[in-house]
Write a structure and sequence with these properties.
32% helix; globular; alpha+beta; 326 residues
Length: 326
Amino acid sequence: MRTAPPSLTDRIIEHARALGFDAVGIASAAGLGQDDRALTRWLAEGRHGGMAYMAREPHRRSRPQEVLPGAKSVVVLAMNYAPADPERGAARRAPTPKTMGRISRYAWGKDYHAVIENRLSQLEAFIRDAAGAGTGCRSYVDHGPILEKAFARNAGIGFIGKNTLLITEEFGSWVFLSVILTTLELPPGPAQTSQCGSCRLCLDACPTGALIAPYQLDATRCISYLTVENKGGIPDDFKSKLNGWVFGCDICQEVCPYNAHPKPTRVKEFHSDHGAGSRLDLERVMALDSDEAFRAAFRDTPLLRPKRAGLQRNAKALLENRKEFP
């Protein structure tokens, strides 16, 4: 067993912050029994919908040693993505026009995967160089078989709220999470427990009832799932409940008291002028007549995820249920 000197943890944290990560914590790579059982129940109930990848070897997500043999620690990183809000005052309170669709805040700028992966690979290289030959590392930005939120909680980055999102004290839930699994044994931080108290604003605000109970999400009812990960049609019962969202949804985050005063991100690529911005012209989306035109319109942004068919499906549902939303 290789035990890292205490100073190495400080050097890793310092280097991570220099690379633009806003919060860094260490969690033990020991298995997550309670979270593993919760995931098993969630999958058995079909709450994951069409996200078949969630059901592939699900136990690996709570057992880093099955992903990286010999893993001892998980370096958890959070990056604030809240852009400077361009819609303050009266402009913010104005309704969204019927021909415009709202975009989830995480997708206003460039695709976060490319932005974070570059910095994550630099941090991984730093850890290998600093710790010496033979140090094993493997990094992921939300696409690997790892329960990032659970390890972030155990690392002391934040707590998991009733909306099932990780909430940090400084940045609320407006953060992207990434991890580096390593064979180094680093001292873990203190785990955080929920600080939601009796608040249930997120549950009451969800227009589709996706938050079926505190800390329980039915993805098949979630607007974010329906407009992004969903490969099929949007059920008729939900088309009138999209509340103007053409890509993703922020309702359960917007009502959360921890998100009341977001700090603008330091990462310029997440600003709205580097991507699609906060709203999308639905008629423009419907006018895209080829996959090439679609890719050109949304190159390097998260809006490529549902493909042209998915984004046009969303736009069509909103146009057929024309309403103004605040």
